[in-house]
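Notebook B, p. 112. Complex prediction, attempt 2.
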Amino acid sequence: MRGRLYIALLHHPVLDREGRVITSSVTNADIHDIARSAKTYGVTRFFIVTPIADQADLVRTIVGHWTCGAGGSLNPSRREALEAVEVAGSLEGVVEAIAREESGPVNTVATGARLGGSCVSHGQLREILDNGNGTTLILFGTGWGLADEVIESSRYRLEAISGPGPYNHLSVRSAVAITLDRLARRKE
Amino acid sequence: MRGRLYIALLHHPVLDREGRVITSSVTNADIHDIARSAKTYGVTRFFIVTPIADQADLVRTIVGHWTCGAGGSLNPSRREALEAVEVAGSLEGVVEAIAREESGPVNTVATGARLGGSCVSHGQLREILDNGNGTTLILFGTGWGLADEVIESSRYRLEAISGPGPYNHLSVRSAVAITLDRLARRKE
């Protein structure tokens, strides 16, 4: 049986262009695009993580517009996607929320364009999803990527997405879409 | 030898939610996200197609900021991506621009979430890219997708991207990212 899959988009702790740990701002396109990708690929819930109360309120207002407000009547498919969005104040809060609903461990997976060292491939992560114990939570970083403390405390690191050349500056929206598509892929 | 790959994002002729042919507005996130995906996957050029002169000027201003202006100094990787962006007034203009630079036919490929009928798979399109004659131009529609006239006049139709369920409402930014990743994929 396939384990359930969760994703989280972190706005803290993430890096800025100089490698300092910061809190980034929430981006409207991230909410919509990632919610739609998550819905397409059967993700159980998409957590948006920010420790800033005003930013969390902003996300709730946007999501509410599309799930309970005028947006949802106008565009039911957008409502369907945004219904799976949940706001959390920290990564620990996300793990606790999942643990309350699921049995077994919550296996966190760090992602990033510059991840090296001992990484699992997308194919290996697919097998972990299909056969592993517990639930899987994939972490995506905004800004210049997840802070070291998140990567180091994660159960797995996922290999970076790369094309034929050295350029590795996808938007996080595109990276989430590609990651979920690769994990859903049946072997050709 | 692998044929060169071009992509175009059409703002006309595309459909609105009621299936009428319209001209949609240019979206800043489309320009950036798709340019970054195109650069990652070795696309030769990314055409943004709009018949509205003001919208074309807006795209040139945004691209100029990141390629010749302050944005490029601040963020060289963004400059690198946006250097491959070109504005065109129509799909015919795009095909003519490519034909001036390339030998052989320009094979157009229509995409869409609701494409049916005789479609090529991503694997088949990869083989066409690797072994086919001429260059390939993949067309993506904004709004509710490409108008019928574009689909009917295209050389190929690409199978719709689908996940495990029936939901098929990815953003065009995500659809481009997934499509390019699938075409670049080596067989596992």
